[in-house]
Write a structure and sequence with these properties.
By secondary structure, the protein is an all-alpha fold. Helices cover 58% and strands 0% of the residues.
């Protein structure tokens, strides 16, 4: 029985030492991170929030509060999520600024355009295949209409 207790104590000591080693390991800080990597991370999570690399902020603002306080960049959202099709007319997408192509679409009304953008229409998938929220989708539709009248 005595040998069994020594094995248990030795194993417990090994686990404890490993745990202390892991807890004492250095964590990455802003100084350790390549600024290009930090910018790339922020760009990928932009629809959700921002990351603080300083470690000084302890809480994040709720996304709803952040979206109501900031103006939606409809032109930027168009450039990153919609231009690939609406810039060249891929799969029959109406090209931004082509008034004659947009006129009958605009005549259908904003509600129809919002519905098509949010839920998809013909070759266009819902939300244009993006992860943009409803408010941003509607702002992009408004931008595209204003640029195509």
């Amino acid at each position: 029985m005595e040998l069994k207790n020594k094995v248990i104590v030795r194993n417990f000591g090994g686990v404890l030492a490993s745990l202390l080693l892991v807890l004492g390991m250095h964590t990455a800080t802003a100084e350790d991170m390549d600024p290009r990597m930090a910018a790339a991370i922020n760009e990928r999570i932009k629809p959700v929030g921002q990351v603080s690399h300083t470690g000084q902020e302890k809480t994040a603002a709720a996304p709803a509060a952040a979206s109501s306080a900031t103006k939606i960049d409809a032109k930027g959202a168009y450039q990153t999520s919609c231009f690939a099709c609406h810039g060249i007319g891929a799969a029959g997408a109406p090209i931004l600024g082509k008034k004659d192509v947009w006129k009958p679409r605009i005549a259908q009304g904003t509600a129809t355009l919002y519905d098509h953008a949010l839920n998809g229409f013909k070759a266009m998938p819902a939300r244009g295949g993006s992860s943009l929220d409803d408010a941003t989708i509607k702002a992009v539709v408004d931008y595209m209409v204003s640029e195509s009248k």
